Amino acid sequence: MLRETMLPDEEFGDLYHRLVGTSNIIQKIESHMRMCLSQQSFNAWSLRHYSKLSESVLKRSLLFLGAPGTGKTITAKGCADHYARTENSPVVFLEVGEPRSKFVGESSKNVKAVFDYARSIAEQRKVVLFVDEFDSVGVSRDTNQMHDDVAAMVNTLNQHMTSLQTNPNVFIIACSNLERRIDHATKRRFDFTIEFKRPDADQRKDLLTRLLENYNFDEDEIIRAAKKTKDYTQDDITRVVNLAVENAFAENAPVTNEHLAEAIEDIKPTGEYA
Questions:
Q1: Could you say which of 5, 223, 250, 255 is the most buried, measured as most Cβ atoms within 10 Å of its Cβ?
Q2: pTM for this one?
């Protein structure tokens, strides 16, 4: 149910350098993470400007929302690794699997176990607790058909998120494609909601430039490909380039604009999730 990675980590560090198309929000995420986890920096700032410590009301948590493939997960991992490197502070990155169980009472126990474990690590290390597909655990209780066991799980989640707000060594990042399915009370446990959008034309050009840098494409070809991939997610565009390279390899030929155009035809943009 938990995957644990000690940061900094080479794989996570590589993800940070792949964060093309989300540059407009990375700075906000990094600033918030530093404010929440670097207590000494926050205290120094407070003393410098206000001559006394201000009581922090930070919830030390962010909710990422957006279509699949828009970079939510790699942004979470990349920014956590970047924090560990720039602050020279080891961080434990805890990825939460599916805590829901078909057995009555087990879901709440699983949620409690996750938070208890994060709290125990936070006694010695900083922790980034990462929950993907958050709508499956923070599911909305605004329905008469909800099973009592699921409602109890959400109650447990809310209680433990609140209890961690005073812990300066824990930071929570949750991701979801389905905002409307997240419980309203649960959403209030986050400092900010950050929306991940599909890349615009300039961002698509930047992403394609990086992905195609070894294949001798000129700028005009990349601009044309960027126009053809309107409404594509970052992951969609990566899959387009991978397919073009695979087709060129199968032909034992260099990757051409034709391979790229054919790949764009074959791979359609990811649809929206209601």
A1: 255
A2: 0.87
Distances (CA, A) of 110 to 77, 107, 216: 23, 5, 51
Judge contact between 66 and 72, C-beta under 8 A. yes
**Does residue 245 surpass a pLDDT of 50?**
yes
Residue 164 scores a pLDDT above 90: no
Residue listed under structure tokens 């073009």: 244
- The single-letter code of the amino acid at 39 is Q
Residue-range domains of the chain with CATH:
2-196 (3.40.50.300), 201-266 (1.10.8.60)
Gap between the terminal Cα atoms of the chain: 27
Q: C-alpha distances in angstroms, 183 versus 125, 189, 224, 248?
A: 30, 10, 42, 47
Task: Look at the block and give the residue holding tokens 């940061």.
Answer: 7
8 Å CB contact between 172 and 13: no
For residues 132-161, give the mean pLDDT.
Answer: 81
Count other Cβ atoms within 10 Å, centred on residue 240.
26
Helix H, strand E, coil C: the string for the chain is CEEEEEECCHHHHHHHCCCCCCHHHHHHHHHHHHHHHCHHHHHHHHHHHHCCCCCCCCCCEEEEEECCCCCHHHHHHHHHHHHHHHCCCCEEEEEECCCCCCCCCHHHHHHHHHHHHHHHHCCCCEEEEEECCHHHCCECCCCCCCCHHHHHHHHHHHHHHHHHCCCCCEEEEEEECCHHHECHHHHCCCCEEEEECCCCHHHHHHHHHHHCCCCCCCHHHHHHHHHHCCCCCHHHHHHHHHHHHHHHHHCCCCCCHHHHHHHHHHCCCCCCCC
State both tokens at 170. Answer: 């824990």
Q: Quote the radius of gyration of the chain (alpha carbons, Å).
A: 21
